[in-house]
Design brief:
The protein has about 230 residues and is mainly α. Helices cover about 70% and strands about 0% of the residues. It has two domains: about 140 residues, no CATH class; about 80 residues, no CATH class.
């Protein structure tokens, strides 16, 4: 596959011992996009046009601000983005009896936009496309896939949606493998969580922790996907 810009990250994500390779890819990409927004791309006309129009969702505004970097640049982004939104709001006739509905319509549309979310969705879809391509065309990658721990439920849903784009026979094969791998690994984590709780019982205090010390954060991430919680 020629698109090494996508194949290399996917291959690397499956080379490590992770609960969900796609969580790793998404978090890494998200961090890169946050850095780009505050970096050289800040003044690129095409990107500024998009950030002026779309802005960022609550989560990504928080991530950008919490970096505590380039506050002048962030101030410029928010300033011009706010100006764009004020133009839209000022065009709503507040004396019209439907003004409230117009404001609600505007806010609903505004809340659905985010420059980083859209970039994430696009690239993650490409990563999934690459993942399935490699699975059926690269024996080494297939072995890594089979040796993995499945996915989080958040990404499992996206993966299963993507299987509908595959040839029906391929979709049937890979879906069965994914289901069984997911069941096995969800049960594994549940057993680790169970052992974690038992370790607080004096009867088990001298027993080894095994692989349960970080079962709580891994369990949360397995259920909910990318979470910025400490492991």
């Amino acid at each position: 596959m020629k698109e090494t810009i996508y194949t290399i990250p996917v291959t690397e994500a499956f080379e490590e011992d992770r609960e969900c390779p796609l969580c790793f890819l998404e978090t890494k990409l998200e961090n890169e996009l946050v850095d780009q927004v505050l970096g050289a791309s800040l003044m690129e006309p095409d990107i500024r046009k998009q950030t002026n129009d779309k802005g960022f969702c609550r989560k990504h505004f928080e991530l950008i601000y919490n970096k505590q970097e380039n506050k002048l640049g962030l101030g410029l982004i928010i300033n011009t983005h706010m100006a764009e939104q004020n133009k839209i709001i000022n065009n709503i006739n507040i004396n019209n009896k439907n003004a409230a509905e117009k404001f609600i319509e505007y806010i609903n549309g505004y809340e659905s936009k985010c420059y980083i979310c859209e970039r994430l969705d696009y690239t993650m879809n490409r990563y999934m496309e690459v993942m399935f391509y490699l699975y059926f065309n690269d024996s080494g990658f297939k072995q890594k896939f089979h040796g993995g721990k499945g996915f989080c439920l958040y990404h499992l849903k996206d993966i299963l949606k993507y299987t509908k784009k595959l040839d029906s026979k391929k979709a049937e094969v890979i879906t069965g493998i994914i289901f069984q791998k997911q069941i096995d690994n969800m049960e594994r984590i549940q057993e680790e969580l169970d052992w974690f709780t038992k370790k607080f019982d004096y009867r088990y205090q001298d027993e080894p922790w095994e692989n349960s010390k970080d079962a709580i954060p891994r369990g949360i991430k397995k259920l909910k996907g990318p979470c910025r919680i400490k492991s």
